[in-house]
Sequence to fold (80 residues):
Amino acid sequence: MNVEKQLDEFYSMLDIKPVSSNAISLYFVIIEIAKKANWKKNIKIANSILTSKTKLSVSALQRARNELITNDYINYKKRY
Fold:
């Protein structure tokens, strides 16, 4: 996967499927972590890491993540 290509696709879709600035911030953090994980298909990222990097509260993080899921920007499986 290529970061530039991924971000180009994301930006082009924002006109069709807009999301909040919190969701955009979260998406960028997820992309950066995925890149560092060598683009593995499934990566696990703790909420504590995402809240630390985005400076979002847990509830704001959950809302932003739900926006990304609803608009098909990411897939998500809750970890138990």
